[in-house]
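Dear all,

This email documents one entry for the complex benchmark we are building for the journal club exercise. For each entry we list the sequence lines for every component of the assembly. Then comes the predicted three-dimensional structure of the complex as a token string, followed by one or two observations. Please use this as the template for your own entries, and keep the labels exactly as they appear.
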Amino acid sequence: MSTIIETVGLTRRFTVREGLRRRVLTAVDELSVRIEPGEAVGYIGANGAGKSTTIKMLTGILVPTSGTVTTCGLRPVADRRRIARQVGVVFGQRSQLWWDLPLRESFRILAAIHALPGDVERARTAELVERLDMAEFLTVPVRQLSLGQRMRAEIAAALLHAPRLIILDEPTIGLDVLSKQRLREFLVEQRRSHGTTLLLTTHDMGDVERLCDRVLVIDHGRLVYDGDLAGLARASGAERVLAVVLAEPTPDLTDIPGARHLASEIRGLRQRLAFDAQASTAAQVFAAVAQRAEVLDFTVEEPDIEDVVRRIYARGPQYHL
Amino acid sequence: MVEVPAGKDIWRWGGEAHLPVRGDLRARLRPYRVVLASRARSQTAYRANFALDLVSSLLAAVVELAEIWVLFHAVTRLGGLEFQQMLLVFGLADLAFSLADLTFGHCDELSDYLRAGTLDVFYLRPQPLLLQLVTCDISLRRLARASVGVGALGAGLAVNDIAWGASSVALVVVALVSGVAMFAALFVWAAGAQFFLIDGAEMTNAVTYGGRYAATQPASVWSRPVRAVFGFAVPMAFTGFLPTLRLLGLPGPAWFPTWLGWCGPLAALWVWGMALLSWRWGVRHYRSGGG
């Protein structure tokens, strides 16, 4: 199958009026990305980095200032209606559902909007209700749903017409841990069973870790990273942490080569050492520690992704891959 | 695991085989019909509430009609028309407005839709944006208002001395249909304008509701600038006043010869032209400006 999303030099500028002065703001700057069918891509960046603008250009809501974009092989602005049949979008802050109607009605209306035949509609609705565990609130008006229930319903609404591309803008915002977990499991399963392509913007790094095998980081409209999550940690120079539990109280291990002592607890029985993921391996640091003290137990902590993104940002917008 | 029935595999993406064929109008209109039916159901679900809505809508319309009646206690003629003739003007114009308001009235709340992101959601659905906007709501309570229009029109037709024949029946129908079309176009025009105007509802109300008010007045009392605006630019005189002149065979004031009474369809085309231009500009502005 052909490429699902392809952008070449995609750029979007806005003219912002500040009193009498006009300022040109570049929301998306020369973005060139290819996403293949079946990929799961995390699209991350700070507020205002250009994520929503990109999504709006992918779905034909916004016209690019320059560059090209194709979604499902179609041009978003000219072929908006055909794209709408193949793409499902959840905007975290805008609802697809009818607030004053029971949830079931919203699904029925959306099925009509997408012209799903009756038997397909029934089967697909049943599948989504079962997988997203919505049976108990199908007859409740949407405005009375809890946030977690509503988000599940929004996702079902976007997936009802079996889109080949799902774009989720902040899908787990405001959800509790259990709801997040359920939702992620569902998305993983949809991807596996239907080969759906997933593009996800999020602030929640757990989403990226659990759902995505590729990460795009955008900063000030520019793509600053494109690769897998582990590579992102390496590229940013973020540190991994070796936490050891020692057999007896030990002075702070400040002289391990390639590692930095972070903290000690219980008179040095527990110590934490940070090391650069590119310069040293966990095994090297562990070996050096084992020479000084008897180690009872240890864990290796991977870098916090928020920290990784912060580090990438700290290099400034001029940083290129 | 629930299986999607074989042979209707919606997972064969891009395949539009399940879509209705071009000629099948009934199937193609189904999305709009389902949405409208659901709106109607939700409005009538709470009977007491709906009854209250109807009553308040009815009262508002009755008060407007009463204004004219009160006015005719002070004068015997207004712009050359007597009360029973004014009933016709009011009946035609107000019924046309009510029917347009019933089906298109929510379009001039576009700024609310923009704020709530509803328009972005329309972009994600495979129907034309304007059709989605028009069919996304319907205000059944305005049926009460329309009933006052029907009453006034019926009374006007009964009490006036009309030479009934095929042409006078046709004139009433043409006037009503083009009147509804004109007011509907005004609402669409207002929607387009609100892409540009912040808090635009107040400004566009001057045209939509101002237009409705003008339409229920005899154009003969208007000053020249008002005649230019509501006679021709936003041709409200074509909804009630001019067809009434034609129907009763009355002479028209300056600028308004009696035969113009038949020209409602032209006026409607003109207003729809402006409405669609306004909508196009608005959408282009939105697409290039962002919400």
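Observations: Residues 25-289 of chain B form one domain. Chain B has a mean pLDDT of 89.
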